[in-house]
Design a protein that fits this description.
- There is one protein chain.
- The chain is α+β, with helices and mostly antiparallel strands.
- Strands 1-2-4-3 form a four-stranded antiparallel beta sheet.
- The longest helix is centred in the N-terminal third of the chain and has 86 residues.
- It starts with 8 loop residues before the first helix and ends with a helix.
Length: 201
């Protein structure tokens, strides 16, 4: 007996192929979505990990910035302490400067010159006096420039010729002068003295 299939087999095959294609497409879409989700979650984990590292670095940077500020304030305190120490050392070293000033003035003052006033402001000394002639004032300026390490930069401010009455009958011509010079600090003067002694040997 011959069996004849009168069902629409081509349409059923077409339907099966369509269903298989749709299932394959659906499966591919699901696999694609799973891969995309895995990649997304992987990137998200990497981003969170990097953000955690960044937050840690930010906290460490803040700690370091605070330490740098503390170091800066400590350096300022050290600089202030060094300045105070230097000021104290300068005062300690310069306590004998008035003695050196008067001693050097006695040694460098030429005959025929006498001092009427002497005033010191910081390291600047202003001196007024009388001299028998202008040459005596010039000699005083040379002595102050070249013969002492304790006095420097003498500068003649003013010189005026005057008549000085020694007695009612005796009047003489004299030069009234006004000059200023710098008093050298002990540390610098001692260096100059050491250099001079080394050059002499």
């Amino acid at each position: 007996m011959i069996l004849i299939n009168l069902l629409p087999h081509r349409e059923a095959a077409r339907k099966r192929r369509r269903e298989t294609y749709q299932a394959a497409m659906l499966g591919s879409a699901m696999v694609g979505l799973l891969i995309a989700a895995a990649i997304y979650f992987w990137f998200q984990a990497m981003i969170e990990n990097q953000q955690a590292k960044n937050a840690f670095l930010d906290s460490e940077i803040k700690v370091l910035e605070n330490q740098i500020k503390e170091i800066a304030t400590i350096e300022e305190e050290i600089a202030a302490l060094r300045a105070r120490q230097k000021a104290v050392e300068d005062l300690q070293a310069d306590r004998n400067l008035p003695v050196h000033l008067l001693s050097e003035l006695v040694a460098q003052l030429p005959d025929g010159v006498f001092i009427t006033t002497l005033k010191q402001t910081n390291q600047t000394v202003v001196m007024q006096g009388m001299a028998q002639s202008n040459e005596r004032v010039s000699e005083l300026l040379r002595n102050l420039s070249n013969n002492t390490p304790w006095l420097s930069k003498p500068e003649l401010v003013e010189i005026v010729a005057k008549n000085v009455a020694l007695s009612p009958r005796d009047q003489r011509r004299a030069s009234e002068f006004n000059l200023r010079f710098q008093l050298v600090r002990s540390s610098q003067a001692n260096k100059a003295l050491d250099a001079a002694s080394a050059a002499g040997n």
